[in-house]
Amino acid sequence: MTYMTEGLVLTDTQGTVAFINHRLSKMLGYPPEQILGKIWLDM
């Protein structure tokens, strides 16, 4: 999952980002550390 060519994000039931792969973090322009723990819909 980490190095797949598609972007992938996994959230908990409240929408908090629990996992983001490298492809999606590159697509968004932020390192995973800045996205983990954030509310996905707020982004």
Looking at the chains present, what oligomeric state does this protein adopt? single chain
SSE topology string: EEHH
Extended strand count: 2
Structural class: alpha+beta
What share of residues are in beta strands?
Answer: 15-25%
Return the average pLDDT rounded to an integer.
93
Helix content: 25-40%
Radius of gyration: 10 Å
Q: What summary fits the major beta sheet?
A: 2 strands, antiparallel
Sequence stretches where pLDDT stays below 50 over 5 or more residues: none
The main sheet orders its strands as: 1-2
CA-based shape: globular
* Tally of DSSP helical segments: 2
Separation of the first and last Cα atoms = 21 Å
SSE layout:
Elements: E1 9-11, E2 17-20, H1 22-28, H2 32-35
Antiparallel strand pairs: 1-2
Fill in the keyword field for this structure:
alpha+beta, 2 helices
Short structural summary:
The chain is an alpha+beta fold and 43 residues long.
Folded structure, characterized:
- Pfam families: PAS.
- Residues 1-43 form the PAS domain.
- This protein is of the alpha+beta class and 43 residues long.
- The protein has one domain (9-42).
- The protein is built from 2 helices and 2 strands, in the order ββαα.
- It has a two-stranded antiparallel ribbon.
- It starts with 8 loop residues before the first strand and ends in an 8-residue tail after the last helix.
- The model has no long low-confidence stretch (mean pLDDT 93).
